[in-house]
Amino acid sequence: MAVEVLLWCIVALLAAATGAVAGSRRASTTVLVYAGGLVASTIILATVIWSLVSDAALAQTLHLPVGLPWVGAHFRLDPLSAAFLAVVNLGGATASLYGLGYGRHEPEPGRVLPFFLSFLAGMNLVVLADDAFTFLLTWEFMSLTSWALVMAHHRQSGNARAGYIYLLMASFGTLSLLLSFGLLAGSDGGYTFDAIRNSHVSSAAGAAVLALVLLGAGSKAGLVPLHVWLPLAHPAAPSHVSALMSGVMTKVAVYGFVRILFDLAGTPAWWWGAVVLLFGGASAVMGVLHALMEHDLKRLLAYHTVENIGIIFIGLGLALAFRANNMLGPAALALTAALFHVFNHSVFKSLLFFGSGAVLTATGTRDMERLGGLIHGMPFTGFAFLIGSAAISALPPFNGFVSEWLTFQAILLSPQLPQWLLKFLAPAIGALLALSAALAAACFVKAFGITFLGRPRSDVARDAREVDGFSLSAMIALVCLCLIAGILPGYFIDVLAPVAKMLVGAHLPQQTGLKWLTVVPIAESRSSYNGLLLFVLIAAAGWLAAYVIHRWASHAIRRSAIWGCGFEDSSTATQYTAGSFAQPIRRVFGTLVFRAREEIHMPSPGDSQPARMHVHLRDLLWDVLYLPVANGVAVISEFLNRVQFLTIRGYLTLVSGALVALLVVLAIWQ
Amino acid sequence: MAVILDALVQLGQLLLVLLLAPLLTGYVRKVKAHLLRRRGPPIVQPYLDLMKLLRKEVVLAHNASWIFRVAPYVIFATTWVAAALVPTFATGLVFSSAADLIAIVALLGSARFMLALAGLDVGTSFGGIGSSREMMIASLAEPAMLMIVFTLSLLAGSTQLSYVAAFMQGTDVGLRVSLAMALVSLVMVAIAENARIPIDNPATHLELTMVHEAMILEYSGRHLAVIEAAASLQLLLYLSLVLCLFAPWGVAVAGEDFTSYTVGLVVYAAKLMIGGFLLAVFETAVAKMRVFRVSDFLGIALMLGLLAMLLLFVSRGV
Fold it and tell me: What is the pTM of this model?
């Protein structure tokens, strides 16, 4: 029943997308499209939440006679897909709501509207797919529609390159997934997921599957070193689409990873966990360090997606390691932490991209060095961005902290693992996780502080005004979710219990019945956290202090000029900028990671020219990993280009040479 | 009845840390003054300063936003709650299950986040310098702190402070090199987080090397008072943390009778005096370091934490 409802909603989305192509010239289409997206997403969201909570729709399947004749199209709703459908459609609903306001500023709606709806439909279909063919087809559909959205503003500089690199990486990722499904299905070619589940995979093939899935799903999710396309492509799209790509599509990639490795590939080997942990740790730290060096607001957010994907993969890697050693309780904890972070990240990343979109609407720029003081003109956006920043920096009492705390608790269980490599690796990854959390806080002090606080650095920043009500209501809804998931995490953990039960065969103890809604993942003597109590205590303490002081001490205020130790500066250029804010961290970490170099041109005394400073950063991964590949491809195509234009004699020589060579090979073979 | 008593004890702890914090600050200043052969201000001077500041009007810059006005109360409230969750004279209080050590560290992170934002709000270069350096220091201090948490949790099997303290009181701890390393690392982190010498100088003003003072340069009146109180609370918190983890003797357990609470209080006061004295001696003995050597200092703390943990693996052979 539930599957049918979902598929009808998806069909409606696709139909509306087709209609949007026809009506793209009319202004009312924008409203209709986003309203349609909102309604369809909300219906799907309500359906999957109902089926998750009521346990009614666990493992419902549906077989449609479309697609390959001997396979057809299989769809299935089980706890895992329900959980990810909830994430996808929460993002879809809020993005549609936001789009109702934001979409009005779109210069060419015909380039966005049809693809927006098909993109939503594509992501839903990937999560519902129950055979390899449907999965890959819808996966590619999702990639292509999102590529079209990245190219919506293709005339802006850099966007065409972003689209090109994205297309390359997406094709490469799909190819890897195709091969991994080929390995999983074996020689019989049973491409339904049920057949794959029942087939046995040898350990060598399993290792190859792990590598291919890491390449395929990892490149879509943005794992280091496959992340290079992400900070280019995500910011290029319109902001609500950026929110969908960063907050939701990367989660669909995580879904693919979880579906294949936890559900389809059978029992993992213990070292799988180690490999995933390494990639996760590297992504977490590299993502946030890149973000710190970034001055473009949306690109900064995109790099943070890399960081958060790293955190999610740390949780998944731990879950794999625990599961391989048959430690089901810890595996459930690590998996729940990862899945909860999937949800949390989709919430606050969407919120932050909405905020950056509002800034873009109000000022027309995403360059933080030209912003500042926006909190005066845009108080609500400022508040929403502040909450999002606190949540992504893993600060209590917001939601980001809870999932990172759960991940830490899972890491603290790693000494029980029997393998020495994992014993040493997990705490080291824990140190990286702590480092990335602390750096994320630094980065969001920068992002919020430079953009919204201080004095305006340009006229557009000074004249910025608050955005429309639809955009604001989408942001406020997500702000509420950040707080609710932070102070009442027990409910969310309980909703995830059937997913953990399905994938690792165990789940966390029920949380909602505990005294005062405390979260106790393992045992009370080990660790517990109560976000509600902390929130109430902090609110009460803050209110009490303010009340007592204003009542009995003083409440007088005098406005005056900035003190600044008596230094009167009328120029806003003397403020700290994003670049100067990150300078201490660049000196500590950047020299090692980015080969950061500062070049200072100081004019000679008496010369009235301004002094100039240039910072040179190198992306070592790009230089070491991608440039050689690109150069190799260039050399080969140069050679092939020459082969293409030979004289007739040349061709004859080539053909006969090839023939002789083949015969020689054949002769030796025999 | 027992519930009410427990709640009262927890309330007492809340008030105790609030009232004791300025005294500790005044005491450390007094000892430092004596070590420098000055007479120094009276021990109660921080209280008098706070009272004076609270009565004064607030001078706000024209472009100060609501963040600037709300931040002091948020900082104060989070620090106060965090300080009240660290066991002082008794363990296992009612609220102790609300946050483990990781959450307490994160609560202090929330306070620091707001403080750094407040430093950027008005848009002066001093505020920016303070905020950016504070976040750099924090980005190194927090992982070091987490390593200490890992070490303790490996030993005690818990991140909950009451349980760790109970474990450390027990007999099966023994003398461990790991614990010594963790202690040194924790002290280094505490020095950095509290803006003490050699990282930052709490007595300085108008120096290009200052961090904490630079962020709060624009604050005045009651806002400044609240922030100063929060700083005192944080110092008390870290000292209590060191005491609770590495010197948990004489601490009462919730539910015991009145005498053991009294004993716990007296012992706690004595331990605070010793701890404060050692801090003052240390601060007088060392010189402040350049900002960019801070990373070396905290890097050592981080390495000590890591080593402590690895050594534990090796020595226990788990």
Answer: 0.95
